[in-house]
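Can you give me the bound-state structure? Components:
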Amino acid sequence: DADVTQTPRNRITKTGKRIMLECSQTKGHDRMYWYRQDPGLGLRLIYYSFDVKDINKGEISDGYSVSRQAQAKFSLSLESAIPNQTALYFCATSEGAGNQPQHFGDGTRLSIL
Amino acid sequence: GEDVEQSLFLSVREGDSSVINCTYTDSSSTYLYWYKQEPGAGLQLLTYIFSNMDMKQDQRLTVLLNKKDKHLSLRIADTQTGDSAIYFCAETTTSGTYKYIFGTGTRLKVLA
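Here's the bound-state model for the whole set.
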């Protein structure tokens, strides 16, 4: 979905490094989300934000932090990357109501050696 | 806790119908969704159904919801090779706090 842009698309880095994944959207949605995808596990929610001043932990937030710099921008940081954080990361957005569908970026493939 | 389960793989022949199944545990689900993920891409919303509906049809796609058994299915008629992808079901719930839960995904392979 070109309306939700993730950068970088691919990243290889070493254990212990700090990594930032960025997400920007042009959909005008208030809600933004970060997920990780692992084979056989589906998508697991890391953090979500309902507006610029709202940040909430998801089911697997340990080892991650986020920043909601503006309505359109939501970044995910790995303070000290470890190999089991190797995964495909997705950013998503949705409108204000809780039951609205989510719109996804194309993902960032992150490998930690 | 809430859970959404899917079988991991499905293989069908081109032109046949595909049926992808999903079961969920939260009886307070409001909307149930089907997403499609093609290689190298994010999830794309295919269709969704409100929990007070039994069926929804959209061109080649038919969604069936059995609330009693908490079972959701996606039928793709006349399956094409371009339908090969991973299909995720997801639910939102009204159980007090925000919940948007994805299944593990079903990888559909269409054989020519």
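A couple of observations. The CA atoms of residues 34 and 91 of chain A lie 5 Å apart. Chain A has a mean pLDDT of 92.
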